[in-house]
Amino acid sequence: MISAVIIDDEKFAREALANMLKMFCPDVNLIGEADGVESGVETIRRLEPDAVFLDIQMPDGSGFDLLKEFASIGFKFVFITAYQEYAIQAFKYSAIDYILKPIDPIDLAAAVEKLHESVLNEDTNKKFQAFIENIQWHEKNPQKIVLKTFDTVIVAEKESIIRCESENNYTMFYFTDKPKVLVSKTLKEFDVLLSSSGFFRVHQSHLVNLNFVAKYNRFPDSHVVLTQGQIIPVSVRKRELLVTLLKQRTSR
Predict the structure, then answer these.
(1) CATH number, domain at 21?
(2) pTM of the full structure
């Protein structure tokens, strides 16, 4: 059972979310509500919930302002947001859970399931700090990514990632400034996240940062050579698009 509070300035929104939690998430025990930043901080400190469902925009500040009031965040949180553009990218890069308004019961149930999976084993403060830095980029791409390993959370500069390699249902990350790490998500998920930021999936098992591609060779077998010397295979169906992307980068 997860104890939770809802913080939203709209009474109707609080009531609607409370009803949805009762109906679709019986393992959540709603122990309190608040209608703003100041009252929300007081409620959290008084009730010490496991999780907080937190609106972003409120009359006396934002959900971000509320979280900044805590020197160390000792609870899980899920943002309830109407944002659908750059902020969503910041959420994803920072591994921050969010639900879009109007709330879909399926999305709510999925968010609660993640709360169960991450009750004690993630560094919430690292994730929030990375998010605050990413959100400052606004329309630009977020610059930091939060990676969850078996036992910790790593915050990495996106430009320090050389490549990613599939390890069944996990992904191995290789960096310029730290040892490689195994992350508990599939390569497909990182392909979706990073493909708009200069990364290209050259092979079913390999996603590379195009900034680190030194050259592409078609023969005797199709591959790229990275600036660090690694040779990465390129699948037949990715050859032409890779050549196009590399030409675009050299012409800038």
Answers:
(1) 3.40.50.2300
(2) 0.71
